Every structure is written in structure tokens, then in C-alpha cells.
């Protein structure tokens, strides 16, 4: 069953960290990093999932499209879509064997690559930036590659 368009809380299965933008950001128009924030982080973001006609999702964080650059996840403040590009579209795949609401999130055009939490959250001051890398071959995904997506 696919996700309906709506607002969701996204947590890493690995450590229950919350995926979102940091509460304080510099004010430029540069893309803003998407982090795996501590589970008890105050004012954590919900992400908006908008299902497209082709079954992919456009995901936004505080209104900015979630995209990837240099193998890291960002929110693109200036939402300019290159013609023919789908680098802001994601394939959300339910992983039934791993539990309720557990999913992997893949690039729309490269199913072998997707979101992952790269290191223990304790190694970072407020959590690591979510990475976009080659994933383990399913269905045996690493916990760092699995996300609990729950309605907000």
C-alpha cells in the first residue's frame, strides 16, 4: 500500500532519529541540509509527501523540495526544476518484513540509491546529514537505510 499525499514524521529505524531541517539556519537562498536529528529534538519537522501520477513522490521540508547534491540530502529553497529532470522525485517502498510503516526511500531514476543515516547520531553535534548512497540489496536492508514513516 502506498502513502497518501500528506504530512508525515520520518524516523530512522536505526536510532529513531527524526529526519528534517535544523531549527536554526543561515538565511541565504542556498540549499539547506536535511539531518537525522536526535529523537527528542525540540520542534522537529514533518515532511510533506505529494504523490505524483507516476507513483513517485515529491517530498518537501518547510515548503522546500527535498533533493540530493554530492550524495547528501538538502531542501532546495529555490525550487527550479530542470526540464526533464527528476532529481526531486523519490520512490518510497514499503518494507513489510521490517515492520509497520517501515520504508526505504530511493531516487526515482536510480532505484539502487537511496536515503541512509551515515553514522551513529552521537558522533555529531545535532545529528548527521542524511546521505544518498547505494543501498544494500533488498530485502535485507541495513537499519540505517530504513525509515519509519508515520502520519503527522
From TrEMBL:
<protein>
    <submittedName>
        <fullName>Uncharacterized protein</fullName>
    </submittedName>
</protein>
<dbReference type="Pfam" id="PF16850">
    <property type="entry name" value="Inhibitor_I66"/>
</dbReference>
<dbReference type="GO" id="GO:0004867">
    <property type="term" value="F:serine-type endopeptidase inhibitor activity"/>
</dbReference>
<dbReference type="InterPro" id="IPR031755">
    <property type="entry name" value="Inhibitor_I66"/>
</dbReference>
